[in-house]
Amino acid sequence: MNVIITGAGGGLGTAVAKVFSDSGATVIGVERDWRQTMPFTTISADLNSAAGCEKMAAEAAKIGSIDALVHLVGGFAGGSPVSETSDATWDLMMNINLRTAFLTMRAVLKPMTAAKKGRIVAIGSRPAVESMPNFAAYAVAKAGVVALIKNVSAETKDLGITANAVLPSVIDTEANRKAMPNADFSRWVRPESIAKLLLWLTSDEAADVSGAVIPIYGRA
13-25 pLDDT, tens per residue? Predict the structure, then answer.
């Protein structure tokens, strides 16, 4: 299996890439800029632009069929009520979370549709389905990712393609530990747990699962 993993250099991405590599998959990791050598094929591309996503798909196709997309790219900013959320924060959340998901999926859906096979999995977030004060921009963007996945699933149900979303709570990454040093890390979701779920969703065994929105909250 050839799998594109966007955001493969991040705290979650490195764990996901390792689980897929260990399974025997050919990993194609995508970041805007790679500054370190990785034990898998890497592509540098701006996923916030249509040209960048088309470049990603074209370079991945040189390696072989695009069997799966695991879309991890995203980010958080905010912490303010709607009345105090700036235009810049709103636009940033829409771009980094929703726009990248749309452009990336659109790019890989073209070769997947031609091949009549493919797996798409995107990382959402718990606030996408459970309202949390002061997270509106982030939550709405992630809710958009969920809606996008459901629409892709509906459009591809007869094409051998599945599309699913995984919604973690707080992920136990180094960055999150630094941001919340007083939290109980043991209650957070381990990146490896998410990675194994993503791996299954891209497998042949998950062929009957599409349009699913799967929570993975740990004990948070």
Answer: 999 999 999 999 9
